[in-house]
Amino acid sequence: MLNADGERAAKNRTFFRSVLCSAEVELLRRRVDELEAGLAAVRNQLQARRDQERVAGRPWWEARAGAFADDPGFEEMVNLGRQWREAERTDAEPDVDGGGTQT
Q1: Are residues 3 and 53 in the same domain?
Q2: Is residue 5 part of a domain?
Q3: Taking a C-beta distance cutoff of 8 angstroms, is the pair 90, 83 a contact?
C-alpha cells in the first residue's frame, strides 16, 4: 500500500510522462504536417511539368532528346562506356580451343 508521498510521486510520474508524450506527439504532428506540405509541393511541381509537356504535345523524353548534342563530355562518356562493354565482352568470351591460358 502506498503512502501519501508514494501516491503523489506516482501521480507526478504519470503527469510528466503524459506531458512529455503529448509534447513529443505534437512535435511529430508538426513534422508530419511539414513533410506532407513538402510532398504536396513536389507533386504540384511534377504535375505542372506534365501539364507543360502535354501542351507541347509530345512525351517528356522527346522534349529532352538531343540535349547533349555536340557535347564533348557526353561523347567521351559514350566512348568510355563502349570501351568498357567491349572489354567485358572480350573477357567473358571462352578461348577458341577451350583450353584456357597456358603459362
Answers
A1: yes
A2: yes
A3: no
